[in-house]
Amino acid sequence: MTLTFQKQLLFLHFLTAFYQISMAEHHFDWKQIGARYYRKIGGSKEFDSYKKEFIESAEELLEYPLHLLGLSSLGTITPIYFTGPMQGVSVSYDYGPIHATTDLAVFTEDFQTDAQVLWLVENRGILTRMAYEKNFLLDSKSLVLGIDGQLRSAHRRLIEQLVSNVKQVIIWTDVDEAGLIIAKDVGETVQKYRSITKWVVPPLEVVLDVEEFQSRYKKAIQVQKEEQEQEIGGVERWKKWISP
To answer: What pLDDT, on the 0 to 100 scale, is given for residue 227?
Structure first.
């Protein structure tokens, strides 16, 4: 997330304030961060104007949810939707309907999968469509994970847990600027591991080279932006993408 200079300066104060209170308190709410740091009337409101932005930026920087570091009363739990087999210490999912876990679970469980193909898709529409094809998922030993429009720290953590178990990863996003960024970021995450990485590019093909993917995507964006759901392809096309 891009911050102006004034926001950047205030954000540094926020990080310092958060570090100080997290070292002293096991649990604290939002208002306590500014109050303890500034120790003046109105100090509890110093960070209020940028609450959502600062929380998101801090979690992106730390790659960890702030509520697991002591911040309470956020009232938000990030759901992560997927379909396919996934096992944790205290929970197990199989092929079937769409499942959901949370950012809390991802940072407290160690998830694994016996799937061979990990699909990372931007939109729920694609996830829902692929979940309908249960036989395809079973036959191809696929797990489909929905990024839901934004690659959060919890998504990144779960991807890192799962990718070490699979043979190949297929990244599929919208054909627009946001989709390009998401696909590139996801690619950087998974390419640290030995699995084969493929990107879906227009017109419904896969490439294995990140530079070719970026080039194809940028050209496609200039011609026509489109959402994933406009061109899904279907089972036969998906099978070709998986094939060597």
So the answer is: 57
